[in-house]
C-alpha cells in the first residue's frame, strides 16, 4: 500500500510538473489593433501589423505558443496588470510614468513625432505660426502629452480615443493638423484618405524609444530581451521591417 501510494504521488507530481511546463509556454500577446501599420485588425478580423509580427517572432524564439488579445489604448496597461495578456507590444513609448506601472524590455524601435497638415496649407511648426490652430493627437500618447506640455497655451489640442479618429477629423477639416508618430503618419499619407496631406516641419521629438511592457518583476522581460537580440542578429527583424518600411526603424 505504502509503495503504491508513493507511485501515485510521483505520478501526480509528474503530471503537475508536465502541466505547468506546458502552461508556462502558452503566452498571450496584448496589442491595440487600431494603429496601422504597427497593429491593426484586417478585413477578415485577423490582428496583424509590425508589432504583432515582431511579437510572434519573439514567441517563436522563446518556443512559446502565443495568441493575440486586443485592448482599447486607454485601458491597455491596466489590462496587462489584470493578466488579460502576458506582454504588451503596441508601439508604446518607454516613459518614467509608465515605468511606475510596468517593466519594459530594451527598445524594439525608435520613433519620432511629426506634424501633418493639408498640402495646400501654409503650416509652419514654430509657436508663432501655430498660435490659435486646432491640432489633433491620440489621447494618452507621447504626441498628446508633447502638445499639452509644449503647445498648451498656443494651440487648441483635440485628443482622440484612436489615431484613426484624429485622421478622420483632419480629412474633414475639423482640425488644422495632426501630431503623431512619423511612421504612422507616413502610412496614412500613402493612403487614399491622406493623399492631399503632407509632413510639415522637422520632427519635434526624435528619440522616442518603443518597448514591450510586462508586469513588474516578471522574468519574461529577460526572455523577451534575449529573443529580441536573436531576431535582430539572424535577420528576422529586418525581414519584418522591410515588409512594412523601405527604411530601418530599429
Automatic annotation (TrEMBL):
Compartments, record wording: Cell envelope
Alphabetized CDD domains for the sequence: PBP2_mlr5654_like (cd13702)
Signal peptide annotation: 1-23
Domain Solute-binding protein family 3/N-terminal: start-end pairs: 26-248
A GO CC term attached to the entry: cell envelope
Record keywords: Signal
Family as reported in the entry's similarity comment: Belongs to the bacterial solute-binding protein 3 family.
Record-given protein name: Amino acid ABC transporter substrate-binding protein, PAAT family
Organism: Pseudomonas straminea
Amino acid at each position: 500500500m505504502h509503495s503504491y501510494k508513493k507511485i501515485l504521488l510521483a505520478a501526480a507530481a509528474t503530471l503537475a510538473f508536465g502541466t505547468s511546463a506546458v502552461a508556462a509556454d502558452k503566452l498571450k500577446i496584448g496589442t491595440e489593433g487600431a494603429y496601422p501599420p504597427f497593429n491593426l485588425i484586417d478585413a477578415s478580423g485577423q490582428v496583424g501589423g509590425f508589432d504583432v509580427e515582431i511579437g510572434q517572432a519573439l514567441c517563436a524564439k522563446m518556443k512559446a505558443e502565443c495568441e493575440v488579445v486586443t485592448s482599447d489604448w486607454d485601458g491597455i496597461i491596466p489590462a496587462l496588470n489584470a493578466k488579460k495578456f502576458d506582454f504588451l507590444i503596441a508601439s508604446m513609448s518607454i516613459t518614467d510614468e509608465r515605468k511606475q506601472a510596468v517593466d519594459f524590455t530594451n527598445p524594439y524601435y525608435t520613433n519620432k513625432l511629426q506634424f501633418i497638415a493639408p498640402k495646400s496649407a501654409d503650416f509652419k511648426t514654430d509657436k508663432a505660426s501655430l498660435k490659435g490652430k486646432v491640432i489633433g493627437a491620440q489621447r494618452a500618447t507621447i504626441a498628446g502629452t508633447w502638445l499639452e506640455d509644449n503647445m498648451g497655451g498656443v494651440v487648441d489640442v483635440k485628443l482622440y480615443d484612436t489615431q484613426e479618429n484624429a485622421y478622420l477629423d483632419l480629412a474633414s477639416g475639423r482640425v488644422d493638423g495632426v501630431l503623431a508618430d512619423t511612421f504612422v503618419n507616413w502610412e496614412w499619407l500613402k493612403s487614399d484618405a491622406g493623399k492631399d496631406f503632407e509632413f510639415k516641419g522637422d520632427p519635434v521629438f526624435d528619440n522616442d524609444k518603443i518597448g514591450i511592457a510586462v508586469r513588474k518583476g516578471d522574468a519574461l522581460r529577460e526572455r523577451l530581451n534575449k529573443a529580441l537580440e536573436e531576431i535582430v542578429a539572424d535577420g528576422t527583424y529586418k525581414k519584418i521591417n522591410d515588409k512594412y518600411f523601405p527604411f530601418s526603424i530599429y
